[in-house]
Amino acid sequence: MSIDAQSLFKLLPAILRIRDQAQAVVTPGWLLADDRDAYVELRTLIDAGIPLTPLQQQQADRLQNAALAGPLASLLAVFAEQLGVLQEDLAQLYDDQFIETCADWAAPYIGDLIGYRMLHGVTPKIASPRAEVAHTIAYRRRKGTVIVLEQLARDVTGWNATAVEFFQKLVMTQYMNHRRPQCLAAPDLRQWQPLERLGTAFDSVMHTVDVRRIGSRRGRYNIPNVGLFLWRLDAWPLTASPAVAVDERRWRFHPLGIDQPLYTHPQTLADFAQLSTPLNVPLPISRRVLAASLADYYSSADAEPKSLCLYENSGGSFQAVDPAKVRVCNLDDLGGSWAHLPSDDHYVVDPLLGRIALPPGLPAGTQLRVDFHYGFSGALGGGEYERVAADAQPPPHLARVPQDYATIQAALNALGADGGVVEIGDSGRYAETLAINAPAQKQVELRAANGCRPTLVLSGELALSGGDDAGIRLDGLLITGAPLHVADTAGNRLARLVLAHCTLVPGLALNADSSPQQPGAVSLIVEIDSLALTLERTISGALRVAAQATVAATDSIIDATAASSIAYAAVDGSGAGGALQLKGCTVVGKLNALKLPLVSNSILLASLAAADTWGAPVIAQRRQEGCVRFSYLPDTARVPRRYRCLPESAASPELAVPRFTSLRYGFAAYAQLAVSSGAQLLSGADNEGQPGAFNFLFQPQRETNLRMRLDEYLRVGLQAGILYES
Asked: In which domain, by residue range, is 300 found?
């Protein structure tokens, strides 16, 4: 029964209702919720002196008559409100009996009834225990099986995973009543597939016993061993991205024109459906695998998107290249050109180098776009991932590129005196020289549309300026070729500059092997003292900042391309730059700041070169204020008071040694801490995660979650090892 004041009023004797109506006055609270809102809206128009339309006047009269209520009706309205609260509470108590409908606070209590153990909520699937509590029965029905161990690894870590029972891969004497013909003592060298996967999670070659402990990540092949292979790198897409031409026949996939391997786009597995295959994890695609299984990786015109696709435009619209016309070859360098350039009408792809060779005889001006996936650790530096905040407000003026304007500068010029947003609606490549001037008291934003990552190839400095209290925001962009420059010119009083999910390529541009063309080059120059610079999830080269400006970086990388280069300093390259705040950042290079208000959960990888004129690799001129906490920095750094910093707080120096998988931008594992780093460093942040730019991934907590679940679901007598494939 629906309880409302009017229903209760109708239950009263008629004589009481008649007497109450005699004393009635207009009471908006007597109306139902929708009618009450409509009455308030119409009453607002009347009070403002705005004439009502005939239809609105009729509605106002009707609602005013319905709102007449006497003292008894008003009292019943209070009773009805409290009864409604009680009714809603009773309904919620019933819903709280079921994990699918219970309130968030009740989910742990329902989990406790079935012995569910809470985990670190660091991935979307376990941020709330609701889903995992609901899956617990399904897990326990399959408890002890390899398929549930793999499912758990995927669910609680958020990484791609596969499980392997190593006793299945042991060479042993055959039992005649239970023969295993696949367990050959020596591999068949004529079969390339097993040799291609040798040493990986999908190794099918038999091995002799390895007696080292699997828990140390050294031993593998033994009777009690189960391996959980995890991929810390994921495959990130670029869609309809213009390929970069070396000449009319030689092209590269990556918009920066570098050689980078293509990655497998993992196909989603249904829960408990099967064990993972190489198509279900983000592996680099090898030449032999792509040649033998092109249909599994290449997107045809009508099929769902896969790992890669080519689109050709020879005068009309872009059309997907037929898979029958695609061949896989080694396109390595050969005598000033590439090997195996096609002589027929086939397109040649090299997935290991990310190269494309076009057939001869194509019309002049042929353009090529590509879909492909590249490897990276997380949502940092821009990409086709979710970036829009849930409470984002629509801009006052929106100019779209290329839908409304062909060039970015034309769209910026069209914003006018009110500011607004220029949104790039694709992952294209834009070669321009740009200037952004924000009007006083306004903001100009240049951003990629959600799900896009455009590349801006600057032929000159990107000039940033603005009037009093003006702001500029760059979001989701990959910028190469030239630095950003906030010049100290007459009238430039820009107050705020925000770089979010952007990449300012370290070294400005890259050679084909991903080495920087200008090592140590500056990516951003700030010459005015009034600017507040903010970096959020951004990769940048070296910064030069005026002494009175301020910089705040969060979950970002500042990379001078070498530890002995200058990552942060004043505009002259040696003096103290403005106040610098770092939260969860990785800085590669020397640093000289006026002060360090806060450095937290960060890695400052800096060293002095031979005959260096700097007194220390990291310098804060004002050390009486500020704090450096839970961070790694050189012992000789001149900084404010340190709190639980490394390496000095480590039990021994080797426990705090940072080792990176790669420090060259363009490599898949760029700025990723290797598992061989010091154990104390790998959990040295204040949240017991890794310090540095990827602190937000909570990698140690993911592994802890998995170990907790293995204690519960691993069969007695078995030992599990967590092995990182990337």
From this structure: 234-376
Q: Which of 660, 704, 657 is nearest to 680 (CA)?
A: 657
Phi, psi of 145 (to 5 degrees): -85, 155
The arithmetic mean of pLDDT across residues 144-155, rounded, is 88
Distance CA 599, CA 582 (A): 5
Same domain, 421 and 490: yes
Q: Do 217 and 316 lie in a common domain?
A: no
Task: Answer yes or no: do 370 and 404 share one domain.
Answer: no
Q: Which of 322, 344, 376 represents a domain boundary (last residue)?
A: 376
Structural domain includes residue 27:
yes
Burial class (CB in 10 A: 0-12, 13-18, 19+), 2: exposed
pLDDT range class, residue 2, cuts 50, 70, 90: low
619 closest CA partner among 570, 559, 684:
570
Q: How do 326-328 and 542-545 pair as beta strands?
A: unpaired
Let me know whether 248 and 218 are in one domain.
Answer: no
Q: Do 165 and 249 belong to one domain?
A: no
Mean pLDDT, rounded, for 418-438: 93
Residue pair 475/453 in contact (Cβ under 8 Å)? The answer is no
| Average pLDDT score, the chain | 88
pLDDT score of 1: 46
Cα 160 vs. chain centroid, distance in angstroms?
Answer: 15
Give the pTM. 0.86
The CA-to-CA distance between both ends of the chain, in Å, stands at 59
Torsion angles phi and psi, residue 124, rounded to 5: -55, -35
**Eight-class DSSP state of 653:** G
Q: Give helix 130-141 / helix 146-157 axis angle, nearest 10°.
A: 170
Q: What is the number of H-type helices and E-type strands within the chain?
A: 13, 43
User: How many residues are given for the chain?
Assistant: 726
Interval 45-96: pLDDT, tens = 888 878 888 888 888 777 777 777 777 777 777 777 787 788 888 888 888 8
Q: Which of 73, 95, 117 is the last residue of a domain?
A: 95
Judge whether 336 lies within some domain: yes
Lowest model confidence (mean pLDDT) among 14-18, 142-146, 340-344, 677-681: 14-18
In a domain, 670, yes or no: no
Asked if pLDDT for residue 244 goes beyond 70, the answer is yes
In 3D space, the residue among 291, 298, 361 whose CA is nearest the CA of residue 327 turns out to be 291
Quick one: pLDDT band at residue 392, thresholds 50, 70, 90?
low
Domain shared by 189 and 214, yes or no: yes
Strand partners, 438: 466
Q: Side chain identity at 641, as an amino acid letter? A: R
Closest of 295, 329, 288, 275 to residue 198, by C-alpha: 288
Cβ of 48: how many Cβ atoms within 10 Å? 7
Q: Per the structure, how many domains does the chain have?
A: 4
Comparing 123 with 531, which gets the higher pLDDT? 531
More confident position, 43 or 694: 694
Mutual orientation of helices 14-22 and 71-95 as an angle, nearest 10°? 120
Which phi and psi (to 5°) does residue 111 adopt?
A: -60, -35
Cα–Cα distance for residue pair 704/182, rounded to 1 Å: 35
Structure-block tokens of residue 620: 């804060």
SS (H, E, C) 21-54: HHCCEECHHHCCHHHHHHHHHHHHHHHCCCCCCH
Residue 134: the pLDDT is 77
Q: Which residues contact 534 (CB under 8 A, 6 or more apart)?
A: 496, 497, 498, 499, 500, 551, 552, 553, 554
> Average pLDDT, stretch 564-577?
94
Give residue 161's identity as a one-letter amino acid code: A
Alpha carbon distance 386, 682 (integer Å): 28
Domain match, 471 and 508 both? yes
341 and 445 in a single domain? The answer is no
pLDDT at position 299: 87
Query: Residue 30 domain-assigned?
Result: yes
Tell me what the mean pLDDT of segment 494-523 comes to. 95
pLDDT on residue 127? 67
